[in-house]
Amino acid sequence: VKTIAVLTGGGDAPGLNAVIRAVVRTALGQGLKVWGIKNGFGGMVENQLVELTNDSVAGILPRGGTILGTTNRDNPFHYPVVRDGQVIYEDLSGQALANLRQAGIEALVVIGGDGSLKIASEFYQLGLPVVAVPKTIDNDIPGTERTFGFDTAVGVAAEALDRLHTTAESHHRVMVLEVMGRYAGWIALHAGMAGGADCILLPEIPFSIDSVIAKIKERQQHGRQFSLIVIAEGAYPQGGEVSVSRIVEGSHEKIRLGGAGEKLARAIEQLTGVESRCTVLGHVQRGGTPTAFDRILSTRYGVAAAECVLEGAFGNMVALQKDRIIRRPIDDIAGKANNITADNELLRAGRSIGICFGD
Ligand code: F6P
């Protein structure tokens, strides 16, 4: 392989640029030519290529976002095109592959989450040599102990909790912090533990409002007139609706009812009479500079992905296991989820110190 391309797909995550930099520097160091594909898989269909040099990646290590641009809409196998004023979906994967062939690109590094991994796996099955790097602040990709971006998101959410703590205490309020995580509650669990939350509500454990109220009242009885609650955006009450998402034909369809945190704050206020406020952290937890941990993990992933290319080890996703970078077949991972299970050690630690998980 003499010429490769790299693309970033799906929602951005802090550390994307650090991965790009590491792929580019490693590949150039071994005499390869590297193209960047702009705007994710859409750019592959639209032939948006830019050559990446050492100068292109200079100074990008601490920068959030992605210098290549991204989108979580475009799937070449189901690509939106306008015909007669109507949007229809066509399979333009052949066009995308032809674009790469024309530029002499022999292998592709995909930096992406669950959606991108599925597309990468389809291209691999069509014969394109592919290597993947697991990206998402949600940490919900199987086969790896960490995705890059997660540590940064947790840090931002934990800092938000520290800030909410002092104002909650001053006003004797219940503060609800809604964090991202439609399907998995990793950010909520880790940020809640780091930020000393009293209740942590996860998509994996439908919560009982009674147990949340009981926790707030128990604290009041011990003289604590305020409480901090972290809720993942995908958490929902026992017997209640799944409020933000469902899986349709194997792919995630987004239903943006949202408002899990606000609904909870209103319910708490009604049931306890305690003033309650909700803060939705939103994309603040996805933007900005990556933590040192994420910069290092991203760099290790980028180097490992380039090494896969150099060794011809295609069809793999690089992954972290017991602090070592390993390789996992993309086909074993694509379309699968990594959720918090009842035996999760941090969940059990939370229970041991009296944190309410709403069950
Ligand atoms: O998967 C990453 C993520 O940030 C989720 O936590 C969140 O639900 C979703 O993306 C938000 O997507 P968008 O940026 O398209 O609103």
Automatic annotation (TrEMBL):
> According to the lineage, what is the superkingdom?
Bacteria
Q: Which cofactor does it need?
A: Mg(2+)
Catalytic class of the enzyme: transferase
Q: Does the keyword Magnesium apply?
A: yes
Site-annotated residues for Important for substrate specificity? 115
> Catalysed reaction(s)?
beta-D-fructose 6-phosphate + ATP = beta-D-fructose 1,6-bisphosphate + ADP + H(+)
Query: What job does this protein perform?
Result: Catalyzes the phosphorylation of D-fructose 6-phosphate to fructose 1,6-bisphosphate by ATP, the first committing step of glycolysis.
Q: Which family does it belong to?
A: Belongs to the phosphofructokinase type A (PFKA) family. Mixed-substrate PFK group III subfamily.
What name goes with this protein?
ATP-dependent 6-phosphofructokinase
Supply the source organism's classification. Bacteria, Bacillati, Bacillota, Negativicutes, Selenomonadales
User: Which gene does this sequence derive from?
Assistant: pfkA1
